[in-house]
Amino acid sequence: MKTFLNCIPCLIRQALDVLRISTYDNSTREQVLKEVIEYLLEEDWTKTPAELSTRVYGIIKKRTKQIDPYKKLKEKSNKLAAKLYPQLKLMVSKSRNPLFTATKIAAAGNAIDFGPQGIKINILKNVREVLESDFAINDFEKLERSLLEIKNILYLADNAGETFFDKVLIEELVKNGKNVTYVVKGSPIINDATLIDVAIAKIDKVAEIITTGTDCCGIVFNECSNKFKRKFETSELIISKGQGNYESLSDMENRNIYFLLKIKCSTLAEEIGVEEGAIILKKG
Amino acid sequence: MKTFLNCIPCLIRQALDVLRISTYDNSTREQVLKEVIEYLLEEDWTKTPAELSTRVYGIIKKRTKQIDPYKKLKEKSNKLAAKLYPQLKLMVSKSRNPLFTATKIAAAGNAIDFGPQGIKINILKNVREVLESDFAINDFEKLERSLLEIKNILYLADNAGETFFDKVLIEELVKNGKNVTYVVKGSPIINDATLIDVAIAKIDKVAEIITTGTDCCGIVFNECSNKFKRKFETSELIISKGQGNYESLSDMENRNIYFLLKIKCSTLAEEIGVEEGAIILKKG
């Protein structure tokens, strides 16, 4: 997905959100914000918003020396999600279509995010709302058919805490005889899942774990490790969680890719033709 | 009021809103947006947001050659407000405290705006909500006392359509023996009231009319006419409508000024210590 003009003020606003939790010094905030704006002015806006975000967060990390400003929020998300996990498992076991319910739960987990929608969100409320709503785009039947033909799934994670929701879906996929490789970020970026979050949710018990090898938003291929790129190139089926991954991969062709996410901004909602806040399972 | 860091992405987003209705050409939008961002980068952020807005809108006007992009929206606001006017008058005549009710109505009219809150708002819904709520800051008693001591009021208008709501308050002030000078913008800026809107609401029948002599957001003194500045300097009591005027004048000292507005952004709400969306009548 290309960067829309709307993304520019949004990226600056997100930069300010991160700056606010990265430093208490207002003159540093102002100085770094100006540097972010300068970068955006000089950047090529035909790149994806995820690529621009990656650089924006990179500038802030470098200048404030705060490697992981969302650490506490991620810990909170993990705690909350860990508590919910038994309930989610129960929902799946009681369901007539466990795989579909698990897919829905994985989408609901994507309500945990602190990027596009700012940091003041109520996770529990958001998750409940999503679980009660239908997919605005529902390619589940296509996914089911495709699953009959493949063995190996590459699962691109999004946020910390959401990992517990992903685990529910991964466990159903494993029950259906699939091998899952779960991809998290190589180092902290916003509240994206890293190896720490994998360990907390114990996903390594049910899936192979790799990282992107870097701290990109979404997937920025020229920053990723060769190991990840090889895995991606040879993947049979990809489940891509969240808006950052969607922004990065939505224009790719000839891929067996399923985007599973909550739509978190009006610009993407308009582009896809759904309401803001909708959940979608969309074949790429 | 100084410009907060939060104001910067908001100003860029507002610029995009105006660009979207000023030109259909996306490359012009991008080019002008970049020019706006360049200007903001070079500007002194200790100026007021109203000063920065004035320059931003100036750049857009100059580049797109669209002198009055909000013309249609203003016409719509005027039509809607004109229809409401008889109901508003009835509310005042039935009221136990007509001056207070009229003040409340004037505040409710400030719900008509297309700047900080974007252009997709439901005027009627907003106005009703405001009429049903209390002032979060209520200096009405101070205003009443001050009115006993003065004869002439300078009334700084904000938006088109809101003019009908202002007329309701002005008529009450006139009934109480006051002379009112109503100040509108010298030429179009966003949906701010100009002489056209005065004529539509027939405010010239109840008040003396002057303009700022320019198209500034709020009041930018070094752009205003000498006539306006003299009027302002010698005013006994000022009623200042809306956020733009508040941003411009809130730091002025030794003025008998009453700010009457709806708080349209979280940053100003936090600064003043009220909820976003609140209405206030605040002695300056």
Spatially, the strands of the biggest sheet of chain A line up as: 1-7-6-5-2-3-4
Oligomer: homodimer
What CATH architecture of the largest domain in chain A would you give? 3-Layer(aba) Sandwich
Find the count of extended strands of chain A (DSSP E, 2+ residues). Answer: 7
Helix-strand makeup class of chain A: alpha/beta
Q: Could you explain the architecture of this structure?
A:
The structure is a homodimer of 284-residue chains. Chain A has helices spanning 7-22, 26-42, 49-64, 71-93, 98-109, 123-132, 140-149, 162-175, 195-201, 226-233, 242-249, 266-272; strands at residues 135-138, 152-156, 179-184, 208-211, 237-241, 257-262, 279-283. Chain A is α/β, with parallel strands linked by helices and 284 residues long. The first copy, chain A, has 2 domains: 7-64; 71-283, 3-Layer(aba) Sandwich (Rossmann fold). In chain A, β3 (179-184), α9 and β4 (208-211) form a beta-alpha-beta unit. Chains A and B meet through α1 and α2 of A and α1 and α2 of B.
